[in-house]
Amino acid sequence: MATVKQRIEDLIGSDYAAIPVNSKADLFNAAVNEVADTLPSELLLKYVAGRSTVNSSAGLDATEEKKILLVTREISDTGTEVRECTPVPFFEFLRAQDATSMYTATVESPVYTYDVSTANDPKLKIFPVPTANQVATIWHFSYIEGTSGWDNADITGLPNSCLQAVVLKACINLLQAYVSDFVQDEEDVEMQGMLTAQIEQLNKAYVSEMGRFIEQDATPRGE
């Protein structure tokens, strides 16, 4: 199977070679993460590579580098029954802990939020607080980073059926950066127009490709 890089070059050649290596990796990573953010969580759950458990009030660290797909909590010490936790804003989460409120969360209707009370250290918190015998589980997609992703033939956590969308979006990002450099260094208006037209065509193809997976009822498509 061709690598993602090879598929990109099949579409746009190597015109983007002048872009610095680290910048190319960042542009590719941005494409992967945008596609992941747009895809329904239900689809990504089928290929999930990240799962964490919480059994105390400490919560889950480092949530800023993850797309949270699903949070569940066990409702009894037997661990045989679980409930999906509902995401709520931080202040609603505080209200859910008030035993005198009609909005109090229970094990049958657990909630979660991002606790921003500590600067630069957000945590995913769950209520009722998980315990050693009633564990909460968090499934997530870890956003891609680093410089080696596009040398692979697949992307961890994404179905292969979504790779074409990643390739198209990466091509758009790379060509836009190339055009920016080209405009500053060259005066060939005709070439600039050709590149801009190619970006427009790729963008139409990308929107069409993503339409396979995203529809009004949020049902995963294209598999």
Architecture overview:
This protein has 223 residues and is α+β, with helices and mostly antiparallel strands. The chain is 37% helix and 16% strand. It is built from 6 helices and 7 strands. It has helices at 4-12, 21-38, 41-44, 90-96, 163-185, 189-210; strands at 50-54, 66-74, 82-84, 86-87, 111-115, 123-127, 136-142. Strands 1-7-2-3 form a 4-stranded antiparallel β-sheet. A 3-stranded mixed β-sheet has the order 4-5-6, covered by helices on one side. A hairpin with a 7-residue loop joins strand 5 and strand 6 (123-127). Helix 2 packs across helix 5. It starts with a helix and ends in a 13-residue tail after the last helix. Residues 216-223 have low confidence and may be disordered.
Summarize the structure.
Helices cover 37% and strands 16% of the residues.
Descriptive tags:
single chain; 223 residues; 6 helices; 7 strands; 16% strand; disordered C terminus
Topology of helices and strands:
Elements: H1 4-12, H2 21-38, H3 41-44, E1 50-54, E2 66-74, E3 82-84, E4 86-87, H4 90-96, E5 111-115, E6 123-127, E7 136-142, H5 163-185, H6 189-210
Helix pairs in contact: 1-5, 2-5, 5-6
**Percent range of helical residues:** 25-40%
Extended strand count: 7
Q: First CA to last CA: what distance?
A: 18 Å
**Beta-strand percent range:** 15-25%
Mean pLDDT: 85
Task: Give a short account of the largest sheet.
Answer: 4 strands, antiparallel
- How many helices? The count is 6
SSE run: HHHEEEEHEEEHH
The radius of gyration over CA amounts to: 22 Å
What is the overall silhouette?
elongated
Structural class: alpha+beta
Show unreliable segments.
Answer: 216-223
- Walk across the major sheet and give the strand order: 1-7-2-3
